[in-house]
Amino acid sequence: MTEGARPVAVEAEEAEEAEEEEEAEEAEEAEEAEEAVEAEEAEEEEEAEEAEEAEEAEEEEEAVEAEEEEEAEETEEAEEEEEAEEAEETEEAEEEEEAEEEEEAEEAEEAEETEEAEEAEEAEEEEEEEEAVEAEEAEETEETEEAVEAEEEEEAVEAEEEEEAEEEEEAEEEEEAEAAEETEEAEETES
């Protein structure tokens, strides 16, 4: 190779090397650009996945909250229903107790009225019995008085008859005495 041709070859070699180096740089830049694109795509994909996961987590959380809210509503409804049933049972128990107390009061009143009626009947019977005893005693007293009056009247009649008999006897004795005296006088006159 000549002295004049050498630089050209060197230049050509250098140019080729420079071209290869440039191509290598371009390839590297292209690779880096591709890697950057891939990294960006991967990042975007990761962000999309994270966004999707976040959305799914949010939806799941909302679903859990909705379920909890529904359960809370059902629990509240069940509690309200239970309270309503307890209130109804309490009211029914109170009404039943009031009815029982009213029935007991009526029975007590009826028993009191029956007792009063029996006492009134007993008092009436006792009064009638007492009146009957008084009437019997009055009748016996009246009969006793009548018997006493009859006895007194009989005694008075007997006394009167006895007095009349005595008077009659005295009159008879007096008459006999007069007759005897007259007889005696007549005998004396005759003698």
Structure at a glance:
The chain has 191 residues and is an all-alpha fold. It has one helix at residues 5-190.
Instruction: Give the H and E element order.
Output: H
How much helicity do the residues have? over 70%
- Give the percentage of residues in beta strands: under 5%
Cα distance spanning the termini: 270 Å
Using only C-alpha atoms, the radius of gyration works out to 80 Å
| SSE class | mainly alpha
Give the SSE layout.
Layout: H1 5-190
Region (Disordered): 1-191
Biased composition (Acidic residues): 11-191
Describe this structure in words.
Residues 1-191 are annotated as: Disordered. The chain has 1 helix and no strands. By secondary structure, the protein is an all-alpha fold. The protein is rod-shaped. The chain has one helix at residues 5-190. Helices cover 97% and strands 0% of the residues.
Descriptive tags:
single chain, 191 residues, mainly alpha, 1 helix, 97% helix
